[in-house]
Amino acid sequence: MSGKLYHGAAWYPELWEEEVLRQDIRMMKEAGINVARIGEFAWSTMEPKEGQFDLSLFVKVIGWLKENGIDTVMCTPTPTPPIWYTHGHPERMYVDREGKVMGHGSRQHACTNHPVFREKAALITEQIAKAVGRQQGLVGWQIDNEFKAHVSECMCATCLGEWHGWLEKRYGTVERLNDAWGAQIWSERYEAFEQVPQPGPAPFLHNSSLSTMYQLFSMEKIAEFSDEQAAVIRLHSDAPITHNSSVAFHVDNERLFRNLDFASFDTYATSDNLPAYLINCDLWRNFKRGRDYWIMETSPSYAASLESYASPHPNGYLKAEAVAAYALGAEAFCYWLWRQQRSGCEQPHGSVLSAWGQPTVGYANVREVEEARQAIEEVILGTRPVQAETAVTYSDRAKAFLKTEPHRKLNHRGLMTGFYERLLAMGIHRDLVPEGGELEGYKLLFTPFLPYVSPELTERAMRMAEKGGIWVVGPLSGGRTEEHTVPADCALGPLEALAGVETVFTYPMEGTGSVGQAFGVSAPLSLWSAVFRPLEAQSAGIVEQGLTPGLSFLTERKHGKGKIVLLGSMPEGEEGDQLLRKLVDHYAREAQVTLRTDVSPGTIVAPRRGEDGDVWFVINMDGQGGAVTLPSKAVDALSGAAITPGRLEVGRYEYRVVRFT
């Protein structure tokens, strides 16, 4: 870590005169802001005419900030290429799936794969890195901003050519592509890579392989663009590099962060949607294991644009949000934005200061965050987040599969958040582990909503089970191949043999009256489902009613000292929630998961560990107050007061820092 916790805001010095900038810096100090993020949309200021560069404003501003004890994260401005790049050049612009060509304005309007864009992006990045890369006060870099937030896969002519090259590299010959995709269907067979289309306008649906592979191609290309910028920066600066991303964007975050130094994200979850906020913390902590993540953007009160606005946070919530972030592994908690914008499309967005320089409705809460940051900083810096014993597999590639095949408009983000919410509510400390992440040290692994389960993940999960762990696979997992086709040997491919079952049927269970019974609970079953006949496995859940009574929707098989569990269907409704909680509890107990508490709903426990022992951050986040049972003697890490074992209560948006003795 840097030796401090950062409390920051996005700032746009190119939009304001010097008098305002000086006022902003004074008020940042008063509010406790110690890092500013600048530059992300300022390309036209930095290069007003093609080839004419002027970085003097940013050199000066970084110096002013440093003089006032405020560090800087410098951004590359590539989301917003200037008019000189776009005007008269429709071939350089992003093209959507309907063939519409974007015009100048807003952001992300250019195709990031166009060779001229890559050239100009590398050049402006080089100029910025040369100008400020060694400047005192620069503590980090952010490449671009929110890749693929407003756009998804580009369908321009440049991308078509890149697509053909990507396919040739992946398959080698067009015959292998045809075989892998089953392209003989509907006479889709190709004779050359140059004939393979993009998944643009079509009378009906495209081949699943075409649609999913094009998404993966797009994800890889945007990550390559990030890699190129990072390589340029590293020639002129030693400051660590990140990108500000989200699970909502059309990127593969695991791939994107592979060649960056730390991970960061933005979130605008409202205060009544805690799982949507916390799931990011538990995931981003694991993209760069051992390196603290940053919350690069969140609102001091509410998000808004010309077309919408969210509910403002209740007073006190922002402090709870920030303490939770720091406790769960964040090095920085930053706002969008510092001073309200007086023009553009986000004029109504929440900010720390108004456009006329006065504190906003969120200002007092920002001050509360700063008081909390100062109070907990020493404890945070002296401890590290404890690795969970329970993990959930997360995959943005699975998101691509479900975008191609959403069944009844299934949403990967919603499915994952709903599953995660149960672990959260049950007080189980959890990690979301990227699909390619290591599983050493975990006792219980859930892998839901992963249509293609790779051999590499399977090997790591089975190795975990061999040592005594339990791997729960499903629902909606394993039913597709890497190329998004249906396995031709059995419904779930290699998983079936490993799990010791035969999949008898796969079909959508909604509306069929299907009811499953497991752990003494009967519940309706839903989603596209698989039902099993156990061969070398034991049935743990039986279909009682519907089309397939007597078959299993839940099985388990011993493997080494542990086991593999297949969940073939998703229980739904109140009874379904009860059944799933029973399932989680059963396998957590069997796996001897100890990192769990009886914390009340709406309150979280974030365990950390240091040389002086274990510390719990207990934070109420729903404004209702909460409680948790302390298992042994402790002291308040902030006041030093003794705390007896037993029930510890926290008030509305209150936090306690408990050090066990």
UniProtKB/TrEMBL annotation:
- Positions of substrate binding: 107, 145
Q: One GO CC annotation, please?
A: beta-galactosidase complex
InterPro entries referenced in this protein's UniProt entry, alphabetically: Beta_galactosidase_C (IPR013739), Beta_galactosidase_Trimer (IPR013738), Class_I_gatase-like (IPR029062), GH (IPR017853), Glyco_hydro_42 (IPR003476), Glyco_hydro_42_N (IPR013529), Glyco_hydro_b (IPR013780)
Q: Which residues form the Beta-galactosidase trimerisation domain?
A: 388-593
Tell me any Pfam family this protein matches.
Glyco_hydro_42
Which GO terms are recorded in the biological process aspect for this UniProt protein?
galactose metabolic process
Active site, renumbered: 146 (proton donor), 297 (nucleophile)
Q: Cite the GO molecular-function annotations of the record.
A: beta-galactosidase activity; metal ion binding
Bilayer-spanning residue ranges: none
**Record-linked Gene3D superfamilies:** 3.40.50.880, Glycosidases (3.20.20.80), Golgi alpha-mannosidase II (2.60.40.1180)
User: Where, by residue number, does Zn(2+) bind?
Assistant: 111, 154, 156, 159
Looking at the record, the residues that make up the Beta-galactosidase C-terminal domain are 602-659
User: EC?
Assistant: 3.2.1.23
> Catalyses which reaction?
Hydrolysis of terminal non-reducing beta-D-galactose residues in beta-D-galactosides
Q: State the UniProt keywords alphabetically.
A: Glycosidase, Hydrolase, Metal-binding, Zinc
- From the UniProt annotation, give the residues forming the signal peptide: none
Q: Where is the Glycoside hydrolase family 42 N-terminal domain?
A: 11-374
PANTHER family, alphabetized: BETA-GALACTOSIDASE GANA, BETA-GALACTOSIDASE YESZ
The family note in this entry says: Belongs to the glycosyl hydrolase 42 family.
State the name under which the record lists this protein: Beta-galactosidase
Can you name the source organism? Paenibacillus aurantius
